[in-house]
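Researcher: Structure prediction, please.
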Amino acid sequence: MPFANVGTDKIFYAEHGYASAAARRGIPIIFAHGAAASHLVWGAQVRALGEITRTVALDLPGHGRSPLPGRNSIDAYRDVVLGLLDALRFDRAVIVGHSMGGGIAQTLALSHPDRVAGLGLVGTGARLRVLPAILDGVLSDFGTTAQRVVENSFAPALDAAMRARAVAEFRACPAAVTHGDFFACNAFDILARVSEIRAPTLVVCGRQDRMTPVKYSEFLASKIPQARLTLIENAGHSVMIEKAEEVNRALSDFMRTL
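Model: Predicted structure follows.
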């Protein structure tokens, strides 16, 4: 699994999609993760969509295997994804983003529409306010805040083993980087501009999402001219992990329309 040089950053990414000529000819997909996460959240999607096109899931700076520093604005993370497109020599790609990654994807579609062939907006919104208890708690009580975020990131039926693993993965991201992520989310607001997005868009949300409720996705789908909405039952904010097959199917169907 390689690194790409993006400005002064070394960006780690996982990829799939060299197995067939058809995959090599398809429009590539870049998967962008959310706050305090890594490329691992997209494991099922990278493999499944890699059967029809080239798929790339990156670790944003300071996350996973990509070295520090992190960033504290959506625009700054957007520039990293744009740099990765250049490094991989992708003229255009479908940008699929979860939560904070969805903000990055929308911002890229607005600033560089020629580089975005389509959008997959998963558990996200046009504004991403963060509760003060979470934003401040990351620095004052990281352990309790990790538990609170994970508790609200999955449907209520989450089993104990998955909860423990999710908390460990959240805490693997340095607290300062996580705080920067939530600060970036809290400042993100494109409510007045979201209707300017012209890329074909798939909006996906779990019915039980408590971090970015269904109304956020309904707003995106109503304002983006070429958007379709898929709601997935018995899933929360981490819908791509909780209901991987359903998300894979929705993304695959969407890719075939492009």
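Model: DSSP finds eleven helices and eight strands in the chain.
Researcher: Thanks, that helps.
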